[in-house]
Design a protein that fits this description.
Structural class: little secondary structure
Shape: elongated
Order of helices and strands: HH
Number of helices: 2
Largest sheet: none
Radius of gyration: 21 Å
């Protein structure tokens, strides 16, 4: 009985999402953290305004004291 073991190169089945590809290189595989954290907050098509402040949107950028140019500049916290 002969067993032939050979090495193969396989392409990953997991594809990169288009919204993650805009943030990182399109040819680089995204981490699970990047898949789950980039552009997940709804900014359009929000159905209801908050009852306690109807003049504002639900996720109004002017509501917070923290002002950032790019909220996705933070990297994967597991790497620190």
């Amino acid at each position: 009985m002969n067993i032939d073991i050979q090495g193969e190169t396989r392409t990953p089945k997991r594809q990169i999402f288009s919204h993650v590809a805009r943030r990182i290189d399109e040819h680089k595989a995204a981490t699970h953290y990047e898949d789950a954290s980039y552009y997940i907050q709804a900014t359009t098509h929000i159905h209801y305004r908050p009852v306690y402040a109807p003049e504002r949107e639900s996720f109004d950028k002017g509501r917070t004291a923290i002002v950032m140019n790019d909220r996705y500049v933070f990297k994967d916290p597991r790497h620190f």
